[in-house]
Here is the input.
Amino acid sequence: MSIPELLQRITPATVRTALLPLVVALIVGVVCAPGLGAAPLDAHVTDATASLTVSQEAALEKRLADFEHRSGTRIIVLVVATTRPVPIDEFAARKLREQPAERGSASNGAMLVVAKDDHAVRIVAEGRLDRLLTKDLRLRILADTAVPRFERQDFAGGITETVQAMMDRASEPVAMAVADDELPEASGPAGSGYWLSALLAAGVAAAATASRRRSARSG
Here is the structure.
């Protein structure tokens, strides 16, 4: 069959029939994109990757719920396969901003976001915790607690240690907050790998952004 004959047979109905599966696939892909609509935050701990056992998740949930009850500070853990196509920083900040509306809680909390397939991890904070958990301190906590264990595939251990570090910091008065340039050197993880490389890249990008902002203000 020649191309002109083939074109004559194409009707709006055949076009709709041919495009319908593609449209459905696109809709499903958007709605169920990993790390976006697939992990509703209805608890302190949401693990969409089964990285934590049932008992580990339950223990961490109770620990964070008790901490919120005592301190009024909400710390959330979210583990997803990927945040793509959204960068993890944007994804984490957006999820944290959604929390007051979703949970009715005050704007005072922090979130640990782990994207396993992306080898990416972030801490985001707001309110009082944003002053206690400075950007450099967040990176150093992750480098000392999460990354070494994630490199060994010990996600439960890395998450638990990071949460404890966040809770310890959240328990301090705001007057104890230390400027980034006054922080001691991080001990750093033993060894290196994808997780460390991604974290270091994030630190370099954050430092470059801060430098540009300081230059713009001074100029």
